[in-house]
Amino acid sequence: MVPYAFFKGKIVPLADAKISILTHALHYGTACFEGIRGNWNDEEQQLYLFRMLEHYQRLHKSCKIIKIDLPYSPEELCRITVEMVEKNGYKEDVYIRPLAYKSSEQVGVRLHNLEDSFCVFTVPFGNYLDVTKGIKCCTSTWRRIDDNVIPARGKITGLYVNSALAKTEAFENGYEEAILLTQDGHVSEGSGENIFIVSGNKLITPPVYDNILQGITRDTIINLARDEFGIETVERSIDRSELYIVDECFMTGTAAHVTPVTEIDHRKVGDGEVGPISSKLQELYFEIVRGKNSKYKSWCTAVYKK
Ligand code: PMP
Questions:
Q1: Which of 68, 142, 223, 226 could form a disulfide bond with 166, CB atoms 3.0-4.6 angstroms apart?
Q2: How many domains is the chain built from?
Q3: Ligand 1 in reach of 192 Cβ (< 6 A)
């Protein structure tokens, strides 16, 4: 099976989707991206793409921030993606990576007077973090980048050096994930995940002004918690020390799904086991992303024609 990508306006073998070493985005981080999951449903022999339209709407916003002209509407991007993924023919979970980038082969740091391009490819992709037993996190010595440095609400490639520094530091110190604090010391998010804490019968998650990426999984969980379990989410700043005394904690993200956090900075979260609210949200979320819940089927795009 040849993997295919969408590159320079058409679907081509992935091996032919090559760029020059002069490409602007490679040097200056001038690109925006998305991560979309395709979840395999074995019973139906179907691959479901989760909330793809929302991902492409966010890509448009990211592009606006760094002045990338996307020649395709979010709806057109969805059509291109389904066609490309279908041609790949995967019968397993996949990750889809759209990238809009400053493609001029020119030296000179700026955003203006440059060409823009778009490509998208897909790779097989299982679990990113351990979703069953919970993960160990540390608060990072690296602080989350501020909106007036690089806007964190945009999924901008250059910004991810901040995430990479934090993730590798955490990994090298024996943790699975880092929790980044804002410049003024509030909890922001993980290197590639939003964070929720559970206190009593409510969820608390950092607000957009604490330099988070407004996650689509975050939005999914806020909606499911409220509509299916009557659990409200409060969006407010969280102190670092609050993390040490909460009942439960979990992270959300397209790659991470809903990942329970069972230890932070060598302190057990709750009793150190995956908590009941995290578990029930995770269970429902997995059912929905695999297209197994008819109420939320509109969030899932089927790739294969039957
Ligand atoms: N924060 C960051 C920094 C991320 O990279 C991601 C992954 N896209 C998220 C949060 C979670 O966003 P989503 O749920 O839309 O994948």
A1: 142
A2: 2
A3: yes
Cα(155)–Cα(34) distance, rounded to whole angstroms? 7
Q: Which residues are catalytic?
A: 155
- Final residue belonging to a domain, choices 124, 158, 181: 124
How far, in Å, CA of 157 to CA of 44, rounded? 36
| pLDDT tens-digit map of 60-114 | 999 999 999 999 999 999 999 999 999 999 999 999 999 999 999 999 999 999 9
CA distances from 300 to 112, 147, 187, 228, 291 (A): 37, 32, 31, 18, 6
Query: Does the global pTM surpass 0.90?
Result: yes
Residue with tokens 């002004």, as numbered in its chain = 209
User: What residue type is assigned to position 52 of the chain?
Assistant: M
Q: What's the 157 CA to ligand 1 centre distance in angstroms?
A: 13
The Cα–Cα gap between 189 and 195 comes to: 5
176 and 109 within one domain = no
**Among 123, 140, 119, 120, which residue's Cα sits nearest to residue 193?**
140
Question: Six-digit token pair at 263?
Answer: 């230890």
Q: If you search the block for the tokens 């230890």, which residue do you land on?
A: 263
Span from the CA of 104 to the centroid of ligand 1 (angstroms): 28
Q: Find where tokens 């916003």 sit.
A: 61
